[in-house]
């Protein structure tokens, strides 16, 4: 990571990911490299696409960015995604990218909002 720019990607572009994406897109110190969601019409996917950000229906495409990516944020709430991301980082020897899961996102959004923010997840499986 350069000292003044975080290179970030987000997995999950629905009710939880979209507000997060708005904050990331508004931050001049963030370069959003990609957004993944199973639903190409999810609100965050449309938002990202409208802003010229790469979108994909496969979260593995984002994991494949390798060490070009500083932070990979997973707000799916799906344990299989979490496990697959860990395995992808191990298999590729990527010790650079930090994986941030929904609990940390919930904490950060709650701190920004000044109150506990509840995350919403559907039951869609990956």
TrEMBL record:
Gene3D superfamilies: NAD(P)-binding Rossmann-like Domain. It comes from the Bacteria. Residues 12-90 form the Aspartate/homoserine dehydrogenase NAD-binding domain. Transmembrane segments: none annotated. This is Oxidoreductase. It comes from Azospirillum endophyticum. The lineage of its organism: Bacteria, Pseudomonadati, Pseudomonadota, Alphaproteobacteria, Rhodospirillales.
């Amino acid at each position: 990571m350069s000292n003044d720019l975080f290179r970030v990607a987000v997995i999950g572009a629905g009710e939880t990911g979209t507000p997060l994406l708005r904050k990331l897109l508004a931050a001049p110190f963030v370069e959003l490299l990609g957004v993944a969601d199973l639903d190409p019409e999810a609100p965050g996917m449309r938002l990202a696409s409208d802003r010229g950000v790469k979108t994909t229906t496969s979260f593995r495409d984002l994991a494949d960015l390798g060490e070009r990516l500083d932070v990979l944020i997973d707000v799916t709430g799906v344990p299989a995604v979490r496990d697959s991301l860990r395995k992808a980082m191990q298999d590729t020897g990527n010790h650079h990218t930090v994986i941030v899961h929904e609990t940390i996102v919930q904490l950060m959004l709650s701190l920004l909002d000044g109150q506990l923010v509840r995350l919403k997840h559907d039951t869609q499986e990956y």
